[in-house]
Amino acid sequence: MTAPAGDTPGSEAGAPVPQTPGRALAGLRERKKQRTRLALIDAALELFLAKGYEAATIDEIVAAVEVSQRTFFRYFATKEEVVTNFLTEYDRVMEEALASRPPGERPFTALFESLRVVLRTIAESDAEDSTRFRRIRQVIEATPSLVAAQMARYKASERKLAAEIARREGVDPERDLRPQIVVAFYSGATRVAFEECARQDIWDAGTIAAQVEEAVALAATTMREWV
């Protein structure tokens, strides 16, 4: 007798299908790659804070993790990417959150609500990710070349957000500057908040998230009352 579709002989209907060895090995490889990537980030941040970003070398980073330079370059194209790539993950969270906002929601509201998703992700991070976030912010604020890289990262993210706002509003981003303007206003508020946290020596991820949310809410009020 042929087993019903979706079942395997000798198993109960609806029972979980055992993971194939190939799939299990693929999952194991991905976990190992993630552990190596995070170990490189952690070692780099330790060195950057101890010696300064410019003084720390890739040789020192790979020696601390006991891997080769070839392994390092499988994960990061440059030393700069060790810092910026971690934050780029939050940019992706923002972009995905914006794309899923309800149709018809006003652009600044959609940006603000999407930011809240990012801030919750930051605030609810596990202890290790919270430490990485704090250390990355400290390294960036202490390193002019990384501040410039951070600005380039902001610009890249702003272009994607403006394109999504244009799509949502049904306008041509090549002819209509409003998507760029509203994204620049939102992005400026977040930058001011991050810079103010650094000025006040605030590095805790949860506190930063609360301060940024408050600043962007203030930006919305300012737009109504001052513009």
The end-to-end distance, rounded to whole angstroms, is 76 Å
Helix content percent band: over 70%
Residue-averaged pLDDT: 88
Strand content: under 5%
Record field, number of beta strands: 0
Spell the H/E element sequence.
Answer: HHHHHHHHH
The name of the CATH topology of the largest domain is Tetracycline Repressor, domain 2
Number of helices in the DSSP assignment? 9
Largest sheet: none
CATH homolog superfamily of the largest domain: Tetracycline Repressor, domain 2
- What is the domain total for the residues? 2
Rg result:
22 Å
SSE-based structural type: mainly alpha
What are the segments in which pLDDT stays under 50 over at least 5 consecutive residues? 1-12
What is the overall silhouette? globular
Short note summarizing the structure:
Helices cover 74% and strands 0% of the residues. The protein has nine helices and no strands.
What do you see in this structure?
The chain is 74% helix and 0% strand. The longest helix has 31 residues, at 21-51. The protein has 227 residues and is an all-alpha fold. Helix 4 runs parallel beside helix 7 (144-169). The protein has 2 domains: 23-76, Homeodomain-like (Arc Repressor Mutant, subunit A, Orthogonal Bundle), CATH 1.10.10; 79-226, Tetracycline Repressor, domain 2, CATH 1.10.357. The chain is globular and about 55 Å long. Mean pLDDT is 88; it is low at 1-12.
